[in-house]
Amino acid sequence: xxxxxxxxxxxxxxxxxxxxxxxxxxxxxxxxxxxxxxxxxxxxxxxxxxxxxxxxxxxxxxxxxxxxxxxxxxxxxxxxxxxxxxxxxxxxxxxxxxxxxxxxxxxxxxxxxxxxxxxxxxxxxxxxxxxxxxxxxxxxxxxxxxxxxxxxxxxxxxxxxxxxxxxxxxxxxxxxxxxxxxxxxxxxxxxxxxxxxxxxxxxxxxxxxxxxxxxxxxxxxxxxxxxxxxxxxxxxxxxxxxxxxxxx
Length: 248
Known about the structure:
six-stranded mixed sheet
């Protein structure tokens, strides 16, 4: 098993520009330290259905109301920062908004993983190659490249982005690694509610054995935290991070 940079084609060039957008890095940094409620705020606003900041402040009284953190406090400043950045994302055209949101989830995943494994083994847009096996076309969004403890992450904005092809690719990679005597942990990171992910997975064909699911509620487990509830959903995918990665 070995890792390789994604082919430098037109898609890669265009997407690299999106990943380099300062808004992506700014939003990922804000969400990195955010509470669950603040991440829910970010997701709701970035959906792009409404761009009135006053309306969003009313919709999230726990972050902006009378009982929220005091004005000028780090917590309140983070909520305001997330709202401002999310509104910038929401104001983009539909296609641009979709691309930026995906890049934000990938950047956030990388930041959270860096807390646990450090920056050195982290890579973006990498393919995983196996002897005698045709290489997959689509690269993995984030990989942790450590001997005997490799990890591959596929990141999605929402549950609707989970497809049977994604499940098959992750399962095939894990099985091919096992055939070569290697250990590869495969993880879906979905910036959406766990229940939405479970419903989507239950409707799709594809293997679930060994697949881990990280949802909006459990993002901090990428960094080794304990946020969110553990337990496997009816879909058969685990809702925590890989065994041997972040603690469950």
